[in-house]
Here is the input.
Amino acid sequence: MKLVAIILTLNESRHLPRCLDSLRGVVDEVMVADCFSTDETLAMAEAQGARVIQKSWVNYANQFNWALTQLEPDTDWVLRIDADEYLTPELAAEIREHLPSLGDDIDGVVCGRRMTFQGRMIQYGGVFPIRVLRLFRYGRGECENRWMDEHIKVAGPTVDFKGELIDDNLNSLTWWTDKHNRYACREAVDLLNLEYGFMPHDSVASLGSRSQAGMKRWLKESVYARLPGGARALAYFVYRYVLRLGFLDGRAGASFHVLQGFWYRYLVDAKVAEVKRYMGDHGVDVRTAIVEVLGVKV
Here is the structure.
């Protein structure tokens, strides 16, 4: 059995060694799909024996699915992991012990994912741990073709592992807010596409789906997206911070829930409104407005 981990990178020298350390003895090969890093990322990857490939960035889904096409045909399983994530020892042990014995009918493996923010593990707010599909049989899975919040999708059955991935980004809060400003542009594109249908809609959403990702996506696209912009961001924050006890996460948790649960969501809505206003003011279609306002080529 050959298991290959795919890591997408752009200047990840701060995180990559930790990620690679957690994969040692678990995967047979690491492929680093890099977007022309200018720091020590490539040297670190190559020093650890990783295979490095490079391609200009379009979006996460495009980069990951391209990386899949670069795998050797003898690959059996693929692990998707970000550079700022790492495997817990429990998940590493499960992969080593149980992955080789899974039946050929199993297409994917679901595990838990937790996140730290400013050094604190986020435990409340109904956000973490989440269940994510990160292991899948080569040739039977791919990344949703979306601009934001993309998941791996498979057609066949999956199994659950109890171990977890930890997302622990060590960059500054300024870096985090800059990143989420860019994320807001991408998520605005997805919301606008739900309304205007200017590109194919690829989604794991399914009301009958047993997966956590599928149910959450259905709620987001069929319920949240239909609520008034701005007001839905506030309602979501109250749900997370008050009803789901997010305030118990302390000072760092308060920053996280306010910024990720309200500010970011409100920013997405403001960008959607700005695109629509530009369409009306200039008499252009949604694609043109997205390029002009958000700087995203769709």
